[in-house]
């Protein structure tokens, strides 16, 4: 797997989360309108939809946490790898060559995906959306 594939997958995940949030918002608006029109079942279903939205929000927060932990692990692995020195026997005359900065871990850490995760950018159903729906 390469960095471009990871970026593309992350962007698809963000788009899907945005579409899900829009669908929840549209359904919430319809239920709210029916409840305001006196439909008691719509009010109950609206409350159920709110619970579902909160469950989606919690799930998406877990995904964001997972991505942030993966990012931190990659950053730590890169630091650990860069700080390790290779043992050289005293008779060896060739210097140790530094690891080039174009390795997979470095590319991941310098990608847009990693910058988004590091900045805490999520794709979650936010509290504002939940409040707006209900």
Helix residue percentage: over 70%
Low-confidence blocks of residues: 87-100
Shape: elongated
Order of helices and strands: HHHHH
| Overall pLDDT confidence | 76
Distance between the termini: 41 Å
Say how many strands there are. 0
Strand content: under 5%
Rounded to the nearest angstrom, the radius of gyration is 23 Å
Class derived from helix and strand content: mainly alpha
* Largest pleated sheet: none
Helices, by number, come to 5
Write the layout of secondary structure elements.
Layout lengths: L2 H34 L3 H44 L20 H6 L2 H7 L8 H7 L1
List keywords for this structure.
elongated, mainly alpha, 134 residues, 5 helices
Task: Summarize, please.
With 134 residues, the protein is mostly helical. The protein has helices spanning 3-36, 40-83, 104-109, 112-118, 127-133.
């Amino acid at each position: 797997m390469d960095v471009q594939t990871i970026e593309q997958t992350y962007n698809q995940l963000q788009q899907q989360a945005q579409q899900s949030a829009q669908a929840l918002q549209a359904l919430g608006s319809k239920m709210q309108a029916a409840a305001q029109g006196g439909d008691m079942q719509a009010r109950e279903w609206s409350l159920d939809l709110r619970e579902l939205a909160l469950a989606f929000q919690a799930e998406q927060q877990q995904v964001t946490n997972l991505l942030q932990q993966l990012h931190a692990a990659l950053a730590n692995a890169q630091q650990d790898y860069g700080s390790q020195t290779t043992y050289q026997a005293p008779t060896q005359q060739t210097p140790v060559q530094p690891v080039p900065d174009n390795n997979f871990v470095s590319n991941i850490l310098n990608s847009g995906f990693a910058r988004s995760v590091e900045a805490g950018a999520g794709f979650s159903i936010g509290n504002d959306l939940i409040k707006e729906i209900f």
